[in-house]
Amino acid sequence: MPVYSSTLGMVDVFADLIRGVRAHGSLFGSSMLTPPWSLHFADGAPLTLCTVLGGAGWIVPEHGVPVPLRDRDTVVVRGPEPFSFVDEVGTRADPVACGQHCAVPGQGGTRHRRGWHDTGDADVALIVGAYPARGEINGRLLEALPGVLRVDGGGTGDGVLDHLAEEVAIDRPGQQVVLDRLLDWMLVCTLREWFDRPDGRPPAWWAAQHDPVVGVALRRMHADPAAPWTVATLAGGAGVARATLAKRFAELMGEPPLTYLTRWRMTLAAELLVERASATIADIARTVGYSDPFGFSAAFKRVRGVNPSEFRRQATG
Description:
- 42% of the residues lie in helices and 17% in strands.
- It is α+β, with helices and mostly antiparallel strands and 317 residues long.
- The longest helix has 22 residues, at 175-196.
- It comes from Prauserella halophila.
C-alpha cells in the first residue's frame, strides 16, 4: 500500500509538506488591545500566525529584528523560540504571558476563544493561530521558512480576514471549527504569497512545481512515492526525453530525479518509523517502495546517517 496516492492533478510538494498542519480548538485566540501592550508568546508552537485588524504593532522575536505589523498584514513566526507582540519597540508595558491557554482578559487580554467575546472598545484586534507542525514531513516545510515572514495586507488573504472578522463578532454553533478552518486557509494563503513574491527566495521545489517538465515529475513522485519510478518513466509522463528531464530537474532542484525521490522516501520512512511503532523494518521498506529491507536500510543510512532501527530508538527514546 502506498504512503500517499491520489490523482496527479491534486498532488504537489507544498500540499504534501503542509498536510497535518492544522489549527485545533484552543489554539485560536483574538486579543483586543489598547496601548501600551506587550504580549509574550512562549509556548513554543512550531508555527504561529498573527494578523491584525484595525491597527498596528510590532512582532519582536527573542533573537531577531523587530517586524512591523500594520492593518491586515500577516506574519508567520517559526518556533520554538518565543516572541512578543508590542504596541511599539521599547514599549513601557509589562510583558503578559500569552499562548494557547491565554483565554480570558485576566490572562492576557484575549477577547475571543471557543466562542467567547467582548464588545469593548479597542484600537487593535490581534488574531493568532498556533500550529502543531511536527514530524519529518512538516520539518521539510519549516526548513524553507525564515524565523519571521511577513505578507502585506491587500492580497488573497484579505477575503479570509473578512470572514474571520465576521465570525469572531457573534457566537454561533460550530464556531470553533469554522475559525480553525479559516486560520488554516489564512496560513496557506500567506505562505503562497510569500513564496511567490518577486523579491523572494522560495525553496527550489516551489518554483519547480510551475515548470511544465519538472512539475509533472514531482507530482508523479509525490502522488505515489512507492512506485518503481525510473528516469525513463518520469520523462515519459512529462512527454520529454530522459536526458531532457535529467538536465532540467538538476538545474531547478539541484539534484537528479531519483536522488530527490530517495530523499523523499526516506523522509516518509523516518516519519513512519516513529508513527508505526509495531511495524517492522520490512513493513516500512515495502511501504516506501523497497522490496528488500537490506537495500532500504542501506539507503536510509546513506541519507540519514544511521540505520532505521537506530533512528527509531533515538526518535522514540
